[in-house]
Amino acid sequence: MRVLEVKGLRKQFGDQTVLEDVSFTIPSQCIFGFLGQNGAGKTTTMKLILGLLKATSGEIFVCGEPVVYGNTKTNRLIGYLPDVPEFYAYMTPREYLLLCAEVTGLPKHVIKDRCDELLDLVGLSNVNRRIGGFSRGMKQRLGIAQALLNNPTLLICDEPTSALDPVGRKEILDVLLKVKEQTTVLFSTHILSDVEQICDQIAILHEGKLVLTGDLLTLKKQFAPRQIQLEFKDAAHANEVHSLLLNEARIQKINQQATMLNVEVNDLEGDGQHLLKLILEARIPIYQFKVVEPSLESLFMEVIGCEPMLPL
Ligand SMILES: Nc1ncnc2c1ncn2[C@@H]1O[C@H](COP(=O)(O)OP(=O)(O)OP(=O)(O)O)[C@@H](O)[C@H]1O
């Protein structure tokens, strides 16, 4: 089933076009990473999905139902976590969730069990402190619990990990992985490693246009350049090999950083062997010869037209 379908979405603020012909679909039970640099248009897209902004043109469907601006009926199917969630600081997480459950009209007989289940899911069941003293990560986790109260089909999180330290980020990613068992997740971010860890599908937004969307593993294989990394004892040896390889037609691109060379080839096996042979024949000692696994970073940089850093 298609949980979300975005078709030809365009959004203008005055004469500024912020989104142009954005189309993507999200199948059920997947984690969809919505990637883009600051200002790419991620939050605007999410607000359009939530019916909080009016699209200039295009259509959005949640579980087959059209999203209509100003009539947010489809939001009963969506849980939303904004980038900076706000809470009542004087409450404990349980008090706060119980209040939200009552306000959202959850049947009285299920409220307590649902809140306990969600506090357990986000690792806050034994926390009886006031929310005012929570870390950012704890607030994000409570926000996820709140967004899941009504058993949504789609959970949308706006940059849930961006302001967190590595431990806080891992906790959120673990929670999202657990959420995926029951709910489709769309989360926006510019942290590529988070996407690499948990996402099945991605979309990359660049200056308001969707430059890539699809299954992450397939895209990585399809787009990431075939690269071999060579490391030498010193920069002089790396320079020597760099000059040697400049004459080789089969080498697509060479990128050097000090003692390391990143060499892009067409045929990893054949060209790799040829490279090694050349270096050995020139009697240049080599420290490391490594086939670089395709990474989301190289894919991202390629589609937005930036030069990737040398992988470590
Ligand atoms: N209400 C608005 N009025 C005018 N321009 C807006 C409005 N909201 C957003 N924009 C502009 O739209 C562009 C996209 O903003 P958006 O917040 O969607 O980007 P983003 O990808 O979420 O970025 P970030 O990662 O910084 O949150 C920006 O240039 C922003 O200034």
TrEMBL record:
Q: Keyword set for this entry?
A: ATP-binding, Nucleotide-binding, Transport
Q: Name one GO molecular function term.
A: ATP binding
Specify the taxonomic lineage.
Bacteria, Bacillati, Bacillota, Erysipelotrichia, Erysipelotrichales
Q: Which family does it belong to?
A: Belongs to the ABC transporter superfamily.
Under InterPro entries, the record lists:
AAA+_ATPase (IPR003593), ABC_transporter-like_ATP-bd (IPR003439), DrrA1/2-like_C (IPR025302), P-loop_NTPase (IPR027417)
Gene3D superfamilies cross-referenced by the UniProt entry: P-loop containing nucleotide triphosphate hydrolases
The record places domain ABC transporter at: 4-232
Name-wise, this protein is: ABC transporter ATP-binding protein
PANTHER family, A to Z? ABC TRANSPORTER, ATP-BINDING PROTEIN (PTHR43335)
Q: Which SMART domains match?
A: AAA
Name its species.
Answer: Turicibacter faecis
